[in-house]
Each structure stands twice: as C-alpha cells, then as structure tokens.
Task: structure prediction
Amino acid sequence: MANHQKDFLFVLIKSLSKSEKRQFKIFASRLETSSNTKFIELFNILDKSEAYDEKLILKSGIIKKVQLSNLKSYLYKQILVSIRLNIPSQNTRYQIREQIDFATILYNKGLYKQSLKILDKTKIIALENDEKLMAYEIVEFEKLIESQYITRSIQGRADELVIQAKELNYQNTISSKLSNLSLQLYGIMLKTGYVKSDEEYKYIDNYFNKHIAKFDEKKFGFREKYWFYNANLWHSFLVQDFLASYKYAYKWVTLFYNNPTMIYLNPVFFLKGNHYLLESLFMLKYKSKFKKYLMLLEETTSDPRFPVNDNIASLSFLYLYNNKLNYHILEGTFNESEYLIPEILDKLKLHSEHLDEHHEMLFFYKIASIYFGIEKYVECIFYLEKIINNKNLSMREDLMCFARLLSLIAHYELGNDYYLENQLKNTYKFLLKMNDLHEVQKEIIRFMKNLNSIYPSDIKKEFIKMRQRFIELENNTYEKRAFLYLDIISWLESKIENRKISDIIKAKAKLGNR
Result:
C-alpha cells in the first residue's frame, strides 16, 4: 500500500498516465535544445524502474550525488507544470484560478479596465459555483484597483464592493468555523475513539452544543450547509447515535443531489457523504435504503460527467466495494459475494499508491468475514493473519482486536486445539495492552478461554448462556457497535441450532426486513 517513506518524485512519476507522460516529454523538449537532457534522462530511468534505487541513478553516470537532490527538485517541478498546463478545460476551479492569473498579468501591464472586466466575469462564475474564497479574493483584488482612483468608475462602485466583501467574509468565516469544529471532532475520534460512558457522552455533547449553537442553518448557502452537516455527522458518530448519523449523512448527500453541478465540482465531498450515509444505514441494518443509495452511488460515479483522476478513482473503488461487501454481510449472502474478492484484490494493487494501509486491512477483515460466513476457515485465517501480523495499525486497535477474536473462533471451528491455545495467550496479551477495552471483547476472550474446559454435553448450555449475555451487551449503547465487527450472537445461534451462520443471518435479515 501507499508508503510515505517512498521517494516523492518516484511516486509522482508512477502516478502519471500514458498521456501525461507523453505530454511531459513534449513539454520538456520545448524547454531544452536536446531531449537528452539530464532531467529527461532521470525521468526515463525512474519511469522504467520498479522501485526507487539511488545507486542505479548514480551508476547511469548522468549526475553526481551532490547534484541529484537539485535535479530531482527541478524534475518534480517541471512535471507539475506540465500537468498544470494540460488540465481539462471543464475544471471550473482551475478556470477561475487561470482567469485571476490573467487579470493579474493585465493589472501589472497597467491595463486596469481589462483586468477589472475579467475579474467581474470570473467573480460571477465563482459565486455560481459556490467558490466563495476565490470570489472574496477577486473582490479584494477589485478593491485594490478601484482604491487607486485610476479607473474613474461609476458612482457607488466602492459601496458595492465593500458590501460584497463583508458578505463573503461573513460566509467564509462561518464555513471556516464549522470546518474547524468538524476537524476538531474528527481529531477527538482519532485520539479517544467513540464515547464509552455517560461521562464521555456529556463532555462531547456539551463541547459540540457550545460551538454549534451560534449558527443558524436557515441563513446558510451550499458550503456552509455542507460543513454544518459534516460537523453534526462527526458528533453523532462520536456519541454513537446512528439515527442522527443517518439524518445528517442523508442531508449531506441530498444537498449534492439537489445541486448536481456541485457533485462534479466537489466529487470527493460527494463520495465521502455517500460513504457515511451507507455506513450509517449499515449500522442501523436498514437494507432497502442501503441498497437504494449504493446503486445510486454506482450509477452517479459511472456517469460520463463524473470527474476522473487517480484520487477519485481510488476513492470510488474504496467506497463502492467496501459497501458492496457490507451489503452481503448485512444480508448474509456470503456465497453470492465471493466473486468480489478477486476483483477487490486486483483493484487494491491498482490503487496501492493512493490508499493507506488501514483501508487495505479493513478490506482484508471483510474478506475474512465473507470466508467465515461460507465456512472457509483456512482462507478466513489467512486474511486475518495479514492484519494480526501488521505492525503499523496503532491507530486502529479495534480492528486488530476483532481480527484476533475472529481468528480464535475460526481456529475453534477448525478444531485446532494447539493453535487455539497459542492464539488465546497471544490475544489475551494483546488485549491487556489495549486501551479502553470494551466489555464485549472481555466476554469473548473469557468465553473462548473456558470452552476447552467444558464437558461436551454442557457446551450447548454454555452457548445459550453466553448468547443471553451478549444480547444484553448488544442493547448497551456503548457496546452495540462491536457487534458490527463481529456478529458473535449469530455464530452462537448457529451452534445452538446446528445451522450455518449464513442461514441464521439471512433469516434475521428477512425477519427485520426494512
């Protein structure tokens, strides 16, 4: 997966499409008299290499070691310039930035009226596309020109610009405050995780209400609404209020569908909103709406108007396939989802430079869950061990924990008593080191630890007893999220009733059909 220790220049070159590489070589040939310049030679070496190898570059003789850093910086800059010159014309944000640059050139040449004419037209485009930060920048530029009393503009122009500047500054300030709140809540999520007690709930709730109370949603434009819904969503996730999560994710997504041009201007925000909507519906086990919005997302991302670049392609893959697996897990249709696994593994390789390790491991956990559901326990353990043996997931202790717990159950199903004993010891050591261990996790480890000491005739009674205990925990607001990682109750019921776990989950899905 993406490794931030890799050489940035090498990663950039590997991210280029064939057309971008061709465009760069044409661009580079215009800069120099010969195509055999050092920086083009360096580009060719890195383009053909499978991995960054400084020794190979120096061995080629094109550059001395002391000069390599400067040459790499120069090449990096020229690649970016080449890409910048070939950005598709339909990208509104780049169009606006380009027009501001043109206006600046005209201003510096003393062509003030021409500069103002471009700025006025560009400001309209910026406002139509809710690019208020750039619109504010344009107004400030217009004020700069007008304040020099050069143009002898019509009366009232100064007042008009002052009013526009105040309005835009106010709206941008609101957006900034809301985005700050959203980021702070996300930071709390990374640092402490979801709330685990009434005391933590009150702290987060008071903190959020203190900051959000100042804002009036009725006065918001598109961008202010977006950040307002974003902040509310993170609050509801933190306090594990999944119904509120659904409410604000739905508002977020609906905001985009009601303003379709914003989908194509802000595709990343659109994709993330859909992912949170689907995640909320998954937590609520609301299958019909889950299926509806998953299909709508796939349809929208397949639209020829939907922007395409490396980042968007990777995010589209991440959110679509993640939720395709979630849908099958929700329905209990594990056999029907197995065909997705080779597709996912191929696409993980394709998007490896753009997805972090956490997302790869999350896919592995869900693949393991699919294999567990179709009773392919060896394959299940294979993918769980990829997570368990990963040393870089310090930020996701919960994923590491549930991977170990599911592995324990898979080893139990295989009858691997020796491995089970070792797994229990290792898992117990890991859990002791974990911060803020949930009661569900403690109960699972206690239960698995005692299984080998129970007489075969008493096992069913123990399963029934533990099922009741886990049902009680599932009704606890601060414990229920754990059951979305590991459906221990359905597994216990499969053992009690001597049925496949997939049949148990399917029956529950039909019973709670909504």
